[in-house]
Amino acid sequence: MKSLKFLAMSILVGSMLVFATACSGDEGSTGSEETDNNEQTEDGQLQGEVNIDGSSTVFPIMEAVSEEFAVEYSDVKAPVGVSGSGGGFEKFTVGETDLSNASRPIKDEEKATAEENEIEFTEFKLAFDGLSVVVNKENDWIEQVTVDELKKLWIEDGNAKKWSDINSDWPEEEIKYFSPGTDSGTYDYFDEVILDEEPIVKDATLAEDDNVIVQGVQSDKNAIGYFGYAYYLENKDTLKVVPVVNPDTGEAVEPNNDTIENGEYAPLSRPLFTYVNNASIKDKKQVYEYVKFTLNNAGDLAEEVGYVRLPEEEYTTQLETLEGLK
Question: Which family would the database say this protein is a member of (predicted)?
């Protein structure tokens, strides 16, 4: 009997030890998962993810930031999505992303959605851009364009348009249009300053990917399109940029670093942004370090990919704002 009691006791103790070990293992697993999401590995290396989406125009800057950031923080994953400014804000305002890149300011209705979802955010400027109007390299008739001509070109009027409908000196050939998609901040900006919120020509090819616009204009002598300055610079050997007449001075101005920064390239110069979820700054060290890295390097990297840096004091002021969010 004694031996049976001893055997039963041994089984009970053994079961308790297995249960305790299992519980201990579960607790360790949970701690590891939390570390993977946010903080640091056992050797002190920062790790986790930074969720980023938004503007295709801002994409070249943030892609460069993520590549450089990975050199210093190899255990942090920061891929950059490209769903357009509007598409990015749809995710950002419901808490799906940490950063939302935009080539236009956030709209009132997007702010309202963020407020409904208790998303507090901060806007940071990254660089300047000059929205560039481009035509096919073989186009030898258009040397400059006025704002009024851009309106005639791009606003829907119920007719298929020929170049000669805009300017009698231009050929009687039907125009082919390539534009950013309606989720794009570039489209929104063009809509505001050129279209006056009138409908865009119905036969325009709309694309969230600016490379589609590049290829479309490259492939047709009668094509016209527009996108961010960096995409023109990247393809300047195969595209022709059209100087835009400044409405105030009457001078035709080509987009370049100087004319974009000093505002001569009007009305198509604009700032580029990233919006940051304040909670992500407080709760995720990798997000704070990523944004800090961005502001410290945005000027150099923006110029490397074809945009125009802000005055240095603007980056300094924004770094101080970031510190206040911790």
Answer: Belongs to the PstS family.
